[in-house]
Design brief:
Layout (H helix, E strand, L loop, with lengths): L5 H20 L6 E3 L5 E3 H17 L4 E4 L3 E2 L6 E9 L1 H5 L6 E8 L2 E9 L4 E6 L4 E3 L2 E2 L12 E4 L4 H17 L2 E3 L4 H9 L5 E4 L4 H13 L2 E4 L13 E5 H13 L2
Parallel strand pairs: 3-5, 11-12, 11-13
Antiparallel strand pairs: 1-2, 3-4, 5-6, 6-7, 7-8, 8-9, 9-10, 13-15, 14-15
Helix pairs in contact: 1-2, 4-7, 5-6
The structure holds D-MYO-inositol-1-phosphate.
């Protein structure tokens, strides 16, 4: 186990507190509405985000917050917390357990700490820059699969209007690999790659609060994470592609042929 920074400790505490709220609501009648055509927001999302921000703010009042439900709080700080109170809201609405609280701390375009917590099955993934990645305090590593045809890859559909644009990538990859998965939470996809439950992750046009924590966790577990062009992923921007270094090179070649 690593010696955790104050920032990581507070992120874990905030995730655990949000987790209590999620468990209280889980599998009960959930109050929800559609916020952007296809995207659910529930009372639990809003309650959790408020709780997370209030816990972190007490310790770091100057920091900026970019929350899925409350937007960009925009202080002048060069620290920003990217918060998804429930990544996998649709699963939550349906009483499906693949969901997570995702909290990441960014400093000058680098994610320096990340926590992804599934409160239903009590799985706490976390990482800090250059300190490795952990699941329930045990170090985790990506799988070492080298063969594209044996790789299982998670692919998110993204938003309805974005899927058509991204389908060529998905079709091209699907033809070459072993199998596709979609667990309904981008944060968990990245953590599952980090601990070897899948081999690669393709997240088209995804928001930073969904993936910022998971990206650091995957990188610290040995994954290479880029955008679909093979360039650096930057907070607030675009596609995410993660895989072990071997597979990353090979699958990127397939993706690039579609551009
Ligand atoms: C969603 C999940 C899903 C992805 C969507 C995200 P939310 O996050 O991560 O896997 O396909 O694009 O918006 O809305 O449940 O926080």
């Amino acid at each position: 186990m690593i010696k955790k920074s104050e920032e990581l400790k507070i992120a874990i505490k905030a995730a655990e507190e949000a987790g209590k709220i999620i468990r209280n609501h889980f599998n009960k009648k959930i109050s929800k509405r559609l916020k952007s055509g296809t995207d659910y927001v529930t009372n639990a999302d809003i309650e959790c985000e408020k709780k997370i921000i209030s816990i972190i703010k007490k310790k770091f009042p100057e920091h900026n917050f970019i929350g899925e439900e409350s937007g960009n709080h925009n202080t002048k700080s060069n620290f920003a917390w990217h918060i998804d109170p429930i990544d996998g809201t649709t699963n939550f609405v349906y009483g499906h357990y693949e969901l997570a609280v995702s909290i990441a701390l960014e400093k000058d375009n680098e994610i320096i700490a990340g926590v992804v917590y599934n409160p239903i099955i009590n799985e706490m993934f976390y990482a800090e820059k250059n300190k490795g990645a952990y699941l329930n305090n045990k170090k985790i590593k990506v799988r070492n699969e080298k063969k594209v045809r044996l790789a299982t890859v998670s692919v998110s559909a993204g938003r309805r209007n974005l899927l058509a644009k991204r389908l060529p990538f998905v079709f091209a990859v699907e033809k070459e690999i072993h199998n596709i998965r979609n667990f309904g939470s981008a944060a968990l996809h990245l953590c599952y790659a980090a601990c070897g439950r899948i081999d690669a992750v393709l997240e088209p046009l995804i928001n930073s609060w969904d993936v910022a924590a998971g990206i650091l966790i995957a990188e610290e577990a040995g994954a290479k994470v880029t955008n679909f062009e093979g360039g650096k992923w930057l907070p607030m921007k675009g596609d995410v592609f993660a895989a072990n270094k071997n597979l990353h090179k090979k699958i990127l070649r397939i993706i690039k042929k579609c551009q």
